[in-house]
Amino acid sequence: MKKSIVLAVIICIMAIVFAGCGGQSTNTGSSDGKNNEPTLSFTVNGTKVELGVDATDILKSLGEPKSVTEEASCAFEGLDKTYFYGNFYLTTYPNGDKENIYSCWFVDDSLSTDENIYIGATKAEVESAYGAESFNGNNAYVIKKGASMLTIIIEDDCVSAITYDAIID
Amino acid sequence: MKKKNVMGICTAVCICLLILWLLQALLMPKYMSESQEGALIAEYYDEAGGNDVIFIGDCEVYENFSPITLYEEYGITSYIRGSAQQLIWQSYYLMEETFKYETPKVMVFNVLSMKYDTPESTGNLKHREAYNRMNLDGMRWSMSKWNSISASLTEEEKEWGGNWSYIFPILRYHDRWSQLSSEDFKYIFKRDEVSDNGYLMQVNVKPVTSEHVEKPIADYQFSENCWEYLDAMKELCEKHSTKLVLIKAPSLSPVWWDQWDAQIEEYAKKNGLLYINFLDYQQEIGIDWNTDTYDTGLHLNVYGAEKLSSYFGKILKDEYDLEDHRNNEDMSSQWTKKVNSYNERKKLLEDIRDNKN
Fold this sequence. Notes:
Chain A is an alpha+beta fold. Chain A has one domain: CATH 3.40.33.10. In chain A, 20% of the residues lie in helices and 36% in strands.
């Protein structure tokens, strides 16, 4: 009788600990960028770029970059990479053996968003393209879609920077 | 009969607790061969006390400064309480905890983490949670640890009651059983020291090949939250008559924007603190980015860390008149052992590197 009580209590406690806590995985790797909602996309040098997705085909289509910088993150394996293509930078993060698109920013007015906003466009043009509600009240328009974000920074009533980011959860 | 049943339940609960404790010890990551950064926080307690200088901060302290060089060249005793992507609230609570163990003359804080306003602002949340573990699991239990946990939880951790898993880490690591290796059994109760007074040595060389760039950001103002923690650090140091020194290590990436530098410069001036942005002194320090970094400029290797420590040691000595402990018999015998251990580790790592090549 005593033995069976001991056994029953042990089994109960173990079951609670090992079965009742499935909220967190020990995998510390990166997200695969998949999300039910589509992310923002844009076209650079004739290539459509989506955020958070496998970068293989996109990098292939963009051709040889002018430079590539690799950066390790503290304590984790894999390298974040920054590709420079002359008129924009593209960064990726490691996802297993592959790399996923993480961010992009334009460096001149030769590129524009799919809504035709470019560096140098006026604040009014941005507002017309993305709506006043996307203004952050300070100096930027922030547009979110799925696990991605477009930030358009305004200086002196003109666009000074355009950046795209994947949101990794 | 009832008495027997109660005894039986008590025995069962005790056995359960013992088994759970053993399982927890087995399942928690040991950080011995991989991600050694995770072992740093817990190593401090054996070395606590007797340090004139304590460094607090992220990888830019535990990779860029060598306490052994500070001792060898100036007789300064120091320890680095650094951990991977340590956020400012974690630094504050580590500082608070450190004062329970010792009162250093100088507290050095690396200001890079001012850029992060919330746990979410660091970007990759799965990494963030893992960094939280490396920062928090190694701390001994105290209110400082509890408050640091509360400040550090990501929204996702809060959603699934993650704070409980810091109290009972088995809740977090229960599914690690399939990843267990011989290391988990070997280090179940006792870990090796991976650092030299908090310094995590790297001997490899990977030169800087191109300029590190980062995307522009909309708002360069540090957040109120970060300023409040910096104020709290200043007050904590004042309370203990410890000098707070703000530094920015000479790491080339992440980019330290001029707008950020100006804010810290102004804060330091306003509060009478010493602030050194070592990026401005690379030439005087003698950093050669072809030989002194192991990861293209993010961190220094041991050769760069020794140069930087040699440079900073002179400033510490001149500004704060720190005692030369090399003349103290007890201290010098203790530190001679540390110096020997450091040199042995350096030679071992260099041999491994050379054999690989």
